[in-house]
Design a protein that fits this description.
Number of helices of chain B: 12
Largest sheet of chain A: 9 strands, mixed
Number of strands of chain A: 9
Distance between the termini of chain A: 12 Å
CATH superfamily of chain A: P-loop containing nucleotide triphosphate hydrolases
CATH topology of chain A: Rossmann fold
Order of helices and strands of chain B: EEEEHEHEHEHEEHHHHHHHH
CATH topology of the largest domain in chain B: Rossmann fold
Distance between the termini of chain B: 38 Å
CATH architecture of the largest domain in chain B: 3-Layer(aba) Sandwich
Strand order of the largest sheet of chain B: 6-5-7-8-9
Oligomer: heterodimer
Largest interface: A-B, 28 and 36 residues
CATH architecture of chain A: 3-Layer(aba) Sandwich
CATH class of chain A: Alpha Beta
Radius of gyration of chain B: 21 Å
Number of domains of chain B: 3
Chain lengths: ~200, ~300
Amino acid sequence: MSFINYSSREINCKIVYYGPGLCGKTTNLQYVYKKTNPDQKGKLISLATETERTLFFDFLPLALGDIKGFKVRFHLYTVPGQVFYAASRKLILKGVDGVVFVADSQIERMEANMESLDDLKINLAEQGYELEKLPYTIQFNKRDLPNVAPVENMNKLLNPRNVPCFDGCAVTGIGVFETLKNVAKQVLIELKKHY
Amino acid sequence: MVVICPKCKVRLKVDETRLSPEGSRFKCPKCSAVLIVKKPVEQARKALDSNKIMVAHSNTETQQKIVTLLSGYGFTVITATDGIDVMVKALKELPFISIVEVALPKIYGFEICKRLKTRAETKEMKFILLPSIHDKTKYRRDPVSLYDADEYIEEHDLSSQLIAKINKLRGLGEEGKAGGPEEAAVKTAETPRTEVRQAPSVKEAVSPFDKAPSDEKIEKAKRLARTIINDIHLYNAAKVEDSIRNDNFYAVFSSELKEGKKLYDNRIPQEIRAINDFYKEAIENFISAKKKNLS
């Protein structure tokens, strides 16, 4: 859940970028970091092992507004995508306020997308969350590549509830801010409901 | 499998694992007629038409292009435009080869391969995957996995490579037909004459989504196993290929495989794991597919 710092009058929200291995979660974060004003962002911290690449950084986007005089600070996290790092993913999901599911549009990664979505639901459930009740946005990334599945099919497979979803090409930045803005907006709406 | 008694028309469930290669005798519990039942795979070998090819593509222009090419070589060609259509026609027409678009509407091409390869009557069917989008000048990359397909061809290579790929698969198929067409799948030696229905009904074929809960769980177990092994490859492509060439994959990736197994055991219920070691099966399939590609 969001953390409120009364002395600095800040609300900290956690958004987790989830998705299968090499789907572009890190690329999303790197693009956001690259394109954000230095005054608005914290240091991009990468907690990486040889094969695992978990990223963390925080920043303060002015455009996202404030709630009753409290500035809203977003902490963006990615999870390690490799399927068997489930424990790390579960840990990172602790206290999540919003989720971005980055799906790899390549046909050959469709099974991995489905697996990752199941994994997300299981890990959230183990923390006492339900995906259906969380601010949630999907990004169909890598739309520039060959062998991409049609959006219609991906929606059917990965987005049966028809939550907001965006086409993306995180390397060039297409869809990156649209995705972030959408999930952030949902998080803010939730916050306003509770405070 | 389901068998219909020709005398009283009662539907009988027969455990395939209990069938001997030469067929097993059963007494109909309702009318006492004697039935001799053989495994359906025997019928599949007999039934696949080695001159028939199915072309499944959502774009009618591309489909027509392939049909014209194949007809020119004397093949009988049947067509389908979506995944459900493929499932129905594959089971009804039993073509020897199916050329399927990867992103076929309703059921993806790779899903179709997987489903039909697990069915006894279409187990021997060969599949060539055809990607839906390709820009050969900008984005050339080989597919990471062919799933259960046998070949892969890009649209711009159709006229130059398709026939060669088909011939290659037909060669393999002929080997697979060693049992000969005279090998009968159903024997009706006893009187009264019995009849065994082994091919599924069209209705059965149309509803691949309506799986029994355990089928769903088995499918999930297989999918998780495949995802684990594909991820190991995704993050260590060169190392994986070297280890497969050197026949030491298990030793090189012992810790990753152990981690993967831990997750698999944790996620897959015991009753599904007891059916088969799908994790090991996925690794073996991956290694053999890679070996084939590398050679």
